[in-house]
Amino acid sequence: MSPESILAPLRWQQHKPVESDAVVHIPLEMVDAILEGYSGNGRVCESSVQVERLVNQWKPRLAASPGFVCLQIPDAFFTDDDLRTVYAVMSKSLGQLNQRYGEFFDVKDHGLDHTKSAIPISKTRACSGFHTDSSSVDYCPEVVGLLCLQPGYRGGESLLANAADLYCWLWKNHRVRLPSLEMPIKRDVITPGTVQNRIEIDRNAFPVINLKDGKFQFRYMRYWISQAYQKLEMELPQGLEKSMDLVDQFFHDPRNVFSTKLSRGEMLFVNNHHLCHSRTAFLDAPDGVHKRTLVRTWIDSLRTDNICDAGTASSAFLSSDDWCAEQSESAATSEGIHI
């Protein structure tokens, strides 16, 4: 496949998405069904079938352009546990959740400084800079999910940019810089529980841009690249600094950036292979109680199998007549979904 045919379905192509391109409204009835199912009344698989229908309508937006979706729940007095439950169901309907930080990881300020120790920026309130998640050569999630439980008092906007568009821009205007981004580049080792020494940092090398085998993958975080070479007492590869300057130039152009500030209950799912994301610095509320809290999950890859086989698993809970009635009701609900 040519690079153009690989990249074309992923690109925004100078038409930055607007909110209506990304927002999916989850019907209140579906939220209630999920919560009721997980309260132990035996309807878990029934709600899974309905969730599958909804997810299958917007999942293509993750695999191709725009590369992200924002799920919104109708205003209601849901508890944190309620929101976490709905988020877990939606996340697991997309694919296998990774365990490196636990299936779900609260992103909040712990008063730490990533410039003073090798810790994830997700544990700070600093601006993250544009990046893709995971700096490990051994693993890269296809999708990153975020649930907002408490927005920041000030700041904390989520920013997205398209790396497929970046590649085409570099190819057109700065083609000579691409080879330095396509060679293995070392990254610092920061994942909790992993060995963090010079040998592991030296091994932890992979390209920023990988366009092989009919697929495109972009993996970037400038800070951890710079830290790796500093710790190894090595110079950056020739031309890499200038190439990263151009990457940052593209990502910091407002014309190339989609910005949103998540509200409580909103869920953002982002393709981690062809989109790059960032977070602006934030401040928590002065009361010290309302701390910005997002719940992150890493999804290994988008699943293609069914969540629940309607002809088998659901029959354990429903008679055939009830099942037909449920299917009709579910179809009616699906037709009313606003996407």
CATH topology: Double-stranded beta-helix
What class do helices, strands and sheet pairing give?
alpha+beta
Instruction: Give the strand tally.
Output: 15
CATH architecture: 4-Layer Sandwich
How does the major sheet shape up? 6 strands, mixed
Taking all Cα atoms into account, the compactness measure Rg is: 21 Å
By DSSP (H or I, 4+ residues per run), the number of helices equals: 12
N-to-C SSE series?
Answer: HHEHHHEHEEEEHHEHEEEHHEEEEEH
User: In percent, how helical is the residue content?
Assistant: 25-40%
As an assembly, this protein is single chain
Describe this entry's structure for a reader.
With 339 residues, the chain is α+β, with helices and mostly antiparallel strands. The chain has one domain: Double-stranded beta-helix, CATH 3.60.130. Helices cover 35% and strands 18% of the residues. The protein contains 12 helices and 15 strands. It has helices at residues 3-7, 19-22, 28-41, 44-58, 60-63, 80-94, 163-173, 178-182, 198-203, 222-231, 240-251, 320-335, and strands spanning 23-25, 68-72, 105-107, 143-150, 154-155, 158-162, 185-186, 205-206, 209-212, 215-218, 257-260, 267-271, 275-279, 282-283, 293-299. The strands form 5 sheets. It has a 6-stranded mixed β-sheet with strand order 1-2-12-4-15-3. A 3-stranded antiparallel β-sheet has the order 11-6-13. A two-stranded antiparallel ribbon has the order 5-14. Strand 9 (209-212) and strand 10 form a beta hairpin. Helix 3 (28-41) packs across helix 6 (80-94) and helix 4 (44-58) runs parallel beside helix 12. Mean pLDDT is 84; it is low at 307-339.
